[in-house]
Amino acid sequence: MMGSPDPSTSEFVRRLVHERSAIVIDASKDYLVQSRLAPVARDAGLGGVDGLVEHLRRQPASPLRDVVVDAMTTNETSFFRDAAQWEALATHVLPELIERRRAQRTLTLWSAACSSGQEPYSIAMLMADRFPRVVAEWNVRIVASDLSAEMLGRAAAGRYSQLEVNRGLPAPYLVRYFRQVSGQWEVRDEVRQLVEFRALNLVEPWPGLPPVDVLCMRNVLIYFDAMTKRRVLSRVHDVLRPDGHLMLGTAESTLYSDERFRRVEFGRATTYQRRTA
Ligand SMILES: C[S@@+](CC[C@H](N)C(=O)[O-])C[C@H]1O[C@@H](n2cnc3c(N)ncnc32)[C@H](O)[C@@H]1O
Fold this sequence. Notes:
Mean pLDDT: 93
Shape: globular
Bound molecules: S-adenosylmethionine
Number of strands: 10
CATH architecture of the largest domain: 3-Layer(aba) Sandwich
Helix content: 40-55%
Low-confidence stretches: none
Strand order of the largest sheet: 6-2-1-7-8
Largest sheet: 5 strands, parallel
Number of domains: 2
Order of helices and strands: HHHHHEHHEHEHHEEHEEHEEE
């Protein structure tokens, strides 16, 4: 059986994760500190989680700091997660935006906590399948960002297990947009080159982002405290085009009665638009 870390160890980890990522880990989840960090401590030869934290106290700039934050974040994702939202994107949101952008021929989509890449590749496949002429002839940018270097590495590699492609990916998309490489499924270049990956911490500055038409910020704000959520949503308000759409995770939809955004309903799916121009 795994032992519990010293209470001051858990407190240190909770504070470090909050400082770096704004993620709030409840004290009742101390068991996660043990289960997620024991392998990190073992790999680093630091004899247990207390030893790992002792190392970080002595060497605050240690590269293990980011490894610890990474290990404590939840990266759960899947292709076309929450089908109703994708249906709304394909049949309402994107056709309408494309109509409105005919003059500029520019479209920017941002997956703002992309984890291992299933979300931005879902966007790219959807665009390639449903709007091939827009993809071929317009300036379409699909930006994918995350805090975690490890997740970004996985996302950029674009390789998925059978289990991962079984979750949510329609069979015709698997056939058309993936190829098999050493027992894994690799996203084909035509899709991969549509996505630009970058490291971006949502609670730090967001440099160099063009105005955004569709912003997927799904299943990340739930981990932040109320004040951080509000601050991040202010910046969303700044980067989102006046007629652009923000998509949150379905569990988050009812959480946000933020007066700066209005809810737009498409059947079972909800998006958010700025109230003011
Ligand atoms: C549960 S996953 C969500 C993935 C995808 N958006 C989805 O809905 O399927 C949450 C992601 O948020 C990232 N994350 C956590 N805190 C972050 C922060 N402060 N800035 C950017 N990304 C963050 C994590 O690394 C993780 O990959």
